[in-house]
Write a structure and sequence with these properties.
Strand order of the largest sheet: 2-1-6-5-4-3
Number of strands: 6
Largest sheet: 6 strands, mixed
Helix content: 10-25%
Structural class: alpha+beta
Shape: globular
Number of helices: 3
Length: 172
């Protein structure tokens, strides 16, 4: 196999470690630490998936999204979660982000990389036996700026056309 198919070990380790740290921050509600991983110009979006026949082309509707956010809107969401009006998270849900299959390719700019990963998000509430889950693929742009990694873009492609979660109050 060609070595061009693989990122250098050190780069693979660094980026995988950043994504693992991000999952840890989210699982432990360290949202301000998570926000610090995001660039100021981040575009954070989840386009809709539809069920179509293969002959009809892509099953992703890029022009429609479950959400499309900026750093400012993400900060607002985090601030709201810290208030008593965030009833959907009172009591707080228990959540787990599992990230795997991290693939890295050079980006459009010298200090940017296109990173694809698979995710499984699990969430449970109070003493409810039901566990919500959402799986899919994330396509990120990671940028190395001033000695640290930043997530400059994230597009989330859910596996499901109909999401099996009560709400989209989580961060993926």
């Amino acid at each position: 196999m060609s070595s061009k198919l693989f990122a250098p070990f050190e780069l693979q380790y660094e980026i995988t470690n950043i994504l693992s740290r991000e999952a840890h921050f989210l699982d432990n509600r360290r949202y301000e630490d998570w926000l610090d991983l995001l660039s100021d110009d981040i575009v954070y979006r989840m386009p809709m998936r539809v069920t179509t026949e293969k002959k009809d082309g892509s099953d992703i509707l890029d022009e429609m999204a479950f959400f499309e956010e900026t750093k400012k809107s993400l900060i607002t969401r985090v601030q709201r979660l810290r208030t008593s009006s965030a009833w959907v998270e009172n009591p707080p849900t228990r959540q787990r982000h599992l990230i795997t299959n991290v693939l890295i390719e050079p980006g459009e700019k010298p200090d940017e990389y296109e990173v694809t990963s698979s995710f499984l998000f699990l969430r449970s509430r109070a003493s409810d036996l039901h566990i919500e889950q959402l799986s899919g693929e994330r396509r990120d742009v990671l940028r190395f700026v001033d000695g640290k990694w930043q997530i400059a873009a994230r597009t989330i492609y859910p596996d499901q056309a109909v999401l099996g979660v009560m709400n989209l109050s989580m961060f993926l």
